[in-house]
User: Fold these one by one.
Assistant:
Number 1:
Amino acid sequence: KQARDRASQAILPLRGKILNVASASGAKLAQSQQITDLMQALGVRSGSHYRDEDLRYDKVIIMTD
């Protein structure tokens, strides 16, 4: 955490098992706190189209245990 560049890197801890978005309904996605937190961090909204250039980060790295 201390070695990261705060201008271009962020850390978002997610707790528990994340929802499988491939088979989930829109209502179920909206109820998932992990999904809404991730969407907010990336700067996207549900139901809207986005361009890669509009995202807050160029790269997303997901690390799991």
Number 2:
Amino acid sequence: AGYSPPGWTPGAKGAATAGMTLGEAVKSKYFYLLWAMLFINVTAGMAIISQASPMAQELMSAGMSAAEKAAKAGLILGIFSIFNGIGRLFWASLSDKIGRRTVFTILFASQAVVFYLLATTTNLTMFIIYCCYIYLCLGGGFATMPAYAADIYGTKFVGRIYGWKLTAWSAAGVVGPMLFAQIRQSSGNYQQALFITAVALAVALILPVLAAPPQEQQPDKAA
């Protein structure tokens, strides 16, 4: 105990643990910006999760029985789940290289395009490809947000802060499927709901712009 290797100097005390408390975080704009980012990304993904099976079955051959369609849809949903897991690894790793804000900008912009394309396709293969990408982004947003929160709040209290931020996930899990189903019921098709989701994702592009970590907003005075 107390031994220090030659040439080793301890880092600044608290450098890895300093940060906002939960009370300070809730009073900052970042709490609500990041909450909204997580909410919108999850809402889009959960909306597809809730309706992926019936949407896929509508695109299947009319000659298939209901049981065959259900079995095939189950297999397709299994594939989607794999991409959800891959997305958590891919986007989180990419965010270490290009930044969290850049990742969320890509997530929102690309999904806006994909949801628009999804609304226009009648091809089952393209439907599967588009949904795989949406699942990739769903997992990616969820996995990248903890690091984004740590960048802004510091690491000391980030667990507690992020726990509260996960209310966005819970809310999206209710709101996304419910709104999607209601729009589907009122319009008689999925296209309108998909177009609305695309627009919401496009509008959400402003959120990463506003949620720049403090260190990115202030130039280094020591430079």
